[in-house]
Design a protein that fits this description.
- This protein is an alpha/beta fold.
- Helices cover 44% and strands 14% of the residues.
- It contains 17 helices and 13 strands.
- It has helices at 9-17, 21-35, 49-52, 61-70, 83-92, 116-129, 145-153, 164-172, 184-193, 215-220, 238-247, 261-266, 273-282, 295-304, 319-322, 326-334, 346-361, and strands at residues 39-44, 57-59, 76-80, 98-100, 135-140, 157-159, 177-181, 203-204, 223-226, 252-255, 269-270, 288-292, 309-312.
- The chain has a five-stranded parallel β-sheet with strand order 6-5-7-9-8, sandwiched between helices. Strands 2-1-3-4 form a four-stranded parallel β-sheet, with helices on both faces.
- The termini are far apart.
- Bound molecules: iron/sulfur cluster.
- Iron/sulfur cluster is lined by residues 82, 108-110, 142, 230, 232, 294, 318, 320-321.
Length: 363
């Protein structure tokens, strides 16, 4: 009989997909026990409960980046989240540390709405109209590593939903306007938070020449909002909030800043997934909380606080986060770094780290 290592990948994966959750959990726990501090499993808040419960550190993309940057003792990081998060861990980790992602196909459709070609094109078109040295590029964490490097090389920065408002302040100390990609809604909600009028936050339609904007619109802009969105968060509507208000007027509604601004305006609070976690953990027993974000965050928080009722505003699942399963984790750990390694070239790592370190400083 051939060993798992000698079998074709699909054959090996099938072997794990036939195992029960208990068997797979046992394999993963064995690796954790054997490796101790040498293995660090990071789990995003949107991971399904059985994966989430096996993580050593759970958090939002900001918290997990920080954990990766500070993980001095470990030799291997297994990142349970989507691909751009694992890439960021690769950028921030030491060179000798191995970063693994249980399913390299788990990407992010919103991150795919901006790429190096379209952003470079936008940068060139902006430079025809305005002093490009006064434009600060900001990429949301949810973007490919080469866009983080793009920002690092041009005096720009990465932001997360935890620190976006402070990142705006950081940018205006260094320039007059921001090119914000790839999420239009986070960009606009952050601008609203900082009191920027809507007419000074035009949308940059990357399929159009100069974003479909006039020279005056570009010169007058404080933020140019990339036309991109997360389908998980644009799923939430004003109507859903009204229904909760009618049926459960006492309930608290918290939404994520990737939601449209009209949804944010009606919620009781808006913030990152870590903000939601803190609000839920601090809630008085018996409180009902609705979350306008990926549904697994509500399920995981309900498990943490069984004395509350934590619900999702509407069923909205991120299919890419969902791809990470116990079978992928067990397979990846059993292969001991031979599969699912996250690798990036040095010319991306160096400037990408610069942009991410700026992000970590703007806490
Ligand atoms: S929830 Fe939205 S932004 Fe996050 S990984 Fe899924 S598609 Fe991307």
């Amino acid at each position: 009989m051939t060993s798992l290592l000698e079998r074709p990948v699909f054959d090996a994966l099938e072997h794990y997909s036939r195992m029960s959750s208990e068997e797979l959990t046992e394999i993963i726990r064995e690796h954790k026990k054997r490796l101790g501090n040498r293995l660090l499993i990071l789990g995003h808040f949107y991971q399904k409960p059985e994966v989430f419960d096996l993580a050593d550190v759970t958090g939002d993309s900001y918290g997990l980046s920080k954990a990766a940057a500070e993980a001095e003792e470990c030799e291997t990081i297994l990142f349970c989240g989507v691909h751009f998060m694992a890439e960021s861990a690769r950028i921030l980790a030491r060179e000798d540390q191995v970063v693994l992602h249980p399913d390299l196909r788990a990407g992010c459709p919103m991150a795919d709405m901006a790429n190096l070609d379209t952003v470079t094109q936008a940068w060139e078109e902006l430079s025809e109209v305005t002093d490009i040295n006064r434009v600060v590029p900001v990429t949301y964490m949810n973007s490919d590593a080469d866009l983080k490097a793009f920002c690092g090389e041009r005096g720009g920065i990465v932001c997360t939903s935890s620190n976006a408002a402070k990142v705006y302040d950081w940018c205006y100390e260094r320039g007059d306007r921001i090119l914000f990609f790839p999420d239009e809604h986070l960009g606009r909600n952050t601008g609203n938070q900082r009191g920027i009028p809507s007419e000074r936050m035009p949308v940059w339609d990357w399929k159009e020449y100069r974003g479909g904007l006039s020279e005056n619109q570009i010169r007058d802009a404080k933020v140019l909002l990339w036309k991109g969105f997360c389908h998980v968060h644009t799923h939430f509507t004003v109507e859903q909030i009204r229904r909760v208000r009618e049926n459960e007027p006492e309930a608290v509604i918290l939404v994520h800043p990737e939601c449209p601004e009209e949804v944010v305006a009606l919620a009781d609070g808006c913030g990152s997934t870590d903000y939601m976690r803190k609000q839920v953990l601090a809630a008085a027993p018996g409180t009902t909380v609705y979350l306008g974000t990926e549904m697994n965050h509500a399920l995981n928080l309900q498990n943490r606080r069984p004395d509350l009722t934590v619900k999702y505003l509407s069923r909205s699942l991120c299919p890419n986060m969902w791809k990470i399963g116990l079978n992928d984790m067990a397979y990846t750990l059993d292969m001991e770094g031979r599969v699912n390694r996250v690798e990036l070239p040095e010319e991306i790592i160096r400037p990408g780290r610069l942009a991410l370190e700026r992000m970590l400083e703007v806490a």
